[in-house]
Amino acid sequence: MAQALFDRRRVNGPEESFPPVYDSDEEDELSGSNLNTRQGRSSADIRPIYLKPGLINQANGSAYIETEKTKIACAVYGPRQSRSTTYNEKGKLNVEVKFAPFSCTRRRAPMRDAEDRSIAVLIQQALIPSLRLELLPKSTIDVFIVIIENDGIEGCVASGSIAASTALANAGIEMLGLVTSCAASVVNEEIWLDPTVNEARLTRGTLLLGFMPALGIVTNVWQTGQLTIEEAIKSMELCKERCLDIHSVVAQALLDSAKEQ
Amino acid sequence: MASTSKSEQSYVQASLLAPSPFREDGRGLLDYRHIALETGVAPLANGSARISIGDGPHGIGGGIPGTEVLAAVKLEVEDVQTEEGVDVGRVVCSVSCSPSAYPNLTNNALDDLQSDLSSVLQQTLSHRSLHPPNLSILAGRKSWLLHLDVVVLTDSGNIYDALFLASAAALRDTRVPRTRGIEYKAQNSRATEEDVPMGDAGRSGFDTRALKKSTDFELTDYWDEGEPLGKSESWPVCITLNLLPPIHYLDATPLEESATMSRLLLFFAFPNSSSGNSVLQGMRLLGPGETDLQIMKTLIPLGEKYARDLKRGLDAKFHSEALRRNPATRNKMAR
């Protein structure tokens, strides 16, 4: 077996192959790293969100979210009977994330790896405080997320959480409120919301907040990199305000989709 | 970790929320169990450390096994051009959980737990802001790949604090072997001496031939362990705040963990030991409980205070460990 690239279920390409590097790609990277002010939007603006629930008919609930270069489809199956024989008085939430092989700049092998699971754990953490799992004993709710195009891990987790919460609402699962999520990154002394993958390279620390505006509780916090305590608290405040705005987008999308049916 | 009944959970919660709170081993809410640290436990590794929170049968604790974690650092040479190497070197962390530590988990659940612990460690410690400066060997050719492998031997609660304490101690204990670049010259060296113009007059400022001649490297001294890993004081410590509104407490035992609905992990680093300012190196919220943003804003500065105390203890113990090990080796050499 030659390395881990040998995939028995697929027709493999040649053993040694490299993706082509285009001159224009290198130029884009260099120009992005020299800027101190944000290009195209202000530091507190997030990218416009397109959210449509109910695109996948086979699933109990589904949602598709698109924000510039991040495209994620989410399907919810459940509540359905749990496969385990032990009695669980609370329902289980199972989140699975999959990157499409064409979603990143370099082709990703279709096999599951550690990065898939770490994103799934973060999205699960964002959703769990919002669901009324004690009403669903012996049941499992499966949330399947496919990332069709990926523009940074923080963007994936934030958009994935929003899509998953919308899909759960679309499936009619009882919840305490909708969960919305927003990421912030600190570049020099400014806090930029919703960073793209190029902006995330310039930053020295990013923070992601999952928030439930209906009850005003935080469901998920994830911070990496170096921030001072004041910067972290300020980022959380800014993310929380943005989450309130995203909540109205999600509510409107769900309302429109319910009216269509 | 084992399942607990609702009455057990409510019993633990009620005693923690009581006006004078008490815990099963009589500690205060903010007291840690006894932490034991030993460095240099893996002689084949470049650096290693063993942490035990809540001593086992031999110490205080009454025979209840504590949380024992063993961390070891192994350095590997990586080629920048043909493999995944990066010029400045890479840091890769992984956690493996011994099945004896989690006898109730299936293989799949154990794999998932390992993967989760590894990703928390990797996301925090491999960030470029913590990257040590002396991990490159030959610019553009070879660099060090630092493998930090942590093994969980027993888990008796507070696993994240133990993982990060052991990692910080192992990384501080790491020594990077000193290397020097070498080049290979052809047999008829007389021909090359005539070709290269000698003397400053013939050398142009743009002559970069001297730079890329090193094609390989060697260890300057086989028996020398090397220089300490750079930035050794700035590895972060983890504080796990177990949240039970309106109170919070530290260092939970497994029973207390099963009764607590949410935990806040805070990772603090103190890059400048003289000025003493702190940076938040990571933050993570775990658990199905409800958390208020206002409460979180008060918790973060408190966590920084606890982290500072923990770091001070770690520094003091690390220094005494270094003193313990150095005189011993000096005596051995003298014999």
From TrEMBL, chain A:
Keywords: Cytoplasm, Exosome, Nucleus, RNA-binding, rRNA processing. Residues 1-13 have a biased composition (Basic and acidic residues). One of its GO terms (biological process) is rRNA catabolic process. InterPro entries: ExoRNase_PH_dom1 (IPR001247), ExoRNase_PH_dom2_sf (IPR036345), PNPase/RNase_PH_dom_sf (IPR027408), Ribosomal_Su5_D2-typ_SF (IPR020568), RNase_PH (IPR050080). SUPFAM superfamilies: Ribonuclease PH domain 2-like, Ribosomal protein S5 domain 2-like. Gene3D superfamilies: GHMP Kinase, N-terminal domain (3.30.230.70). It is found in: Cytoplasm; Nucleus. GO terms for molecular function: RNA binding. GO terms for cellular component: cytoplasmic exosome (RNase complex); nuclear exosome (RNase complex); nucleolus. It comes from the Eukaryota. Its main location: cytoplasm. Residues 31-42 have a biased composition (Polar residues). Residues 1-42 are annotated as: Disordered. Residues 46-174 form the Exoribonuclease phosphorolytic domain. Belongs to the RNase PH family. This is mRNA transport regulator 3. The lineage of its organism: Eukaryota, Fungi, Dikarya, Basidiomycota, Agaricomycotina.
UniProtKB/TrEMBL annotation, chain B:
One of its GO terms (cellular component) is nucleolus. Gene3D superfamilies: GHMP Kinase, N-terminal domain (3.30.230.70). SUPFAM superfamilies: Ribonuclease PH domain 2-like (SSF55666), Ribosomal protein S5 domain 2-like (SSF54211). It comes from the Eukaryota. Keywords: Cytoplasm, Exosome, Ribonucleoprotein, Ribosomal protein. Pfam families: RNase_PH. GO terms for molecular function: mRNA 3'-UTR AU-rich region binding. Transmembrane segments: none annotated. One of its GO terms (biological process) is TRAMP-dependent tRNA surveillance pathway. Residues 32-177 form the Exoribonuclease phosphorolytic domain. It is found in: Cytoplasm; Nucleus, Nucleolus. Belongs to the RNase PH family. This is Ribosomal RNA-processing protein 42. It comes from Rickenella mellea. The lineage of its organism: Eukaryota, Fungi, Dikarya, Basidiomycota, Agaricomycotina.
